[in-house]
Specification:
Helix content is 32%, strand content 25%. It is an alpha+beta fold. It has two domains: 135 residues, Fructose-1,6-Bisphosphatase, subunit A, domain 1 (Fructose-1,6-Bisphosphatase, Chain A, domain 1, 2-Layer Sandwich), CATH 3.30.540.10; 109 residues, D-Maltodextrin-Binding Protein, domain 2. A hairpin with a 4-residue loop joins strand 6 and strand 7. Helix 1 packs antiparallel against helix 2 and helix 5 runs parallel beside helix 6. It is globular, with a radius of gyration of 17 Å.
Length: 260
């Protein structure tokens, strides 16, 4: 981690600062701000987003900013910060699980080159930078290497909009020759990080937002996992789906999902 660039060090420190902020709202059951019939955010989302945007504007005034809670800032730059001020708002609000985080990524054109994810309740901070490795609390990440699909513990999600879009994928994965178990907690970034750190074997989602994935993409790639969309094409900014696992297991998963 000593070889982080200014971009990497900035993302790491900012994720920690925002993570500390949102942890202060854990299980406080603050007022729900309903954004549509079934989705809500809280003051934690707004405060964290404001903190992140202010820091980016001050340090990199010529960079674009994309975040879930605010309008897109277009500076016509090749660099774009992709941020999720709170991924897993329901979990933060309800304390159902410790799967909530702050995600900060820097993309050069459509490729993530820096990713930082702070999971404050778990006291975990993930950081990766292209060509510089991936780390959890300062230690190099090591994904699981088992390629046997019948052994695989895999997170499977849809995303918050097309909430049944993952069901055909899940049905296929749970066939007799499929995965061991599927896991889901309503938060994409934490299971993506768990795939990078060797807690689970992989992660699949069918319809996520860029801020759900971008930071975790570079973390998994630098850890050694393969990251594509559901068709098997290398993941790039703008893709809605994602498949993550070690290269051999990834190949076996895609063989089920996209048979020749």
């Amino acid at each position: 981690m000593d070889n982080l660039s200014n971009f990497g060090r900035f993302a790491l420190n900012l994720s920690k600062e925002a993570g500390k902020l949102i942890l202060g709202f854990h299980n406080r059951r603050t007022e729900q701000i309903w954004t549509d019939k079934i989705h809500f955010k809280t003051v934690a989302d707004n405060k964290s987003d404001a903190l992140i945007r202010k820091a980016i504007r001050e340090s990199f005034p010529n960079h674009n900013i994309h975040s879930e809670e605010g309008e897109y800032v277009n500076k016509s730059s090749e660099y774009t910060w992709i941020c999720d001020a709170v991924d897993g708002t329901i979990n933060l609000w309800s304390a159902f699980t410790d799967h909530f985080s702050v995600c900060i990524a820097l993309c050069k054109n459509d490729e993530p080159i820096v990713g930082a994810i702070c999971v404050p309740k778990r006291e975990e901070v993930f950081i990766a930078e292209k060509g510089r490795g991936a780390f959890l609390n300062g230690k190099k990440l090591q994904p699981l290497t088992d390629a046997n699909i019948n052994h695989a513990l895999v997170g499977v999600d849809s995303g918050k909009n097309r909430r049944r879009s993952h069901l055909p994928v899940l049905n296929t994965l749970l066939e007799e020759n499929g995965i061991n178990c599927n896991l889901g907690t309503g938060c994409a970034s934490v299971p993506l990080c768990l795939a990078a750190s060797g807690v689970i074997h992989g992660y699949i989602a069918t319809d996520l937002e860029p801020e759900d994935m971008a930071a975790a993409v570079i973390i998994n790639r630098q850890a050694g996992n393969k990251v594509t969309d559901l068709s098997g094409a290398e993941w790039k900014l703008g893709d809605r789906s994602i498949v993550v696992a070690n290269p051999e297991l990834h190949k076996n998963i895609l063989a089920l999902l996209v048979p020749e």
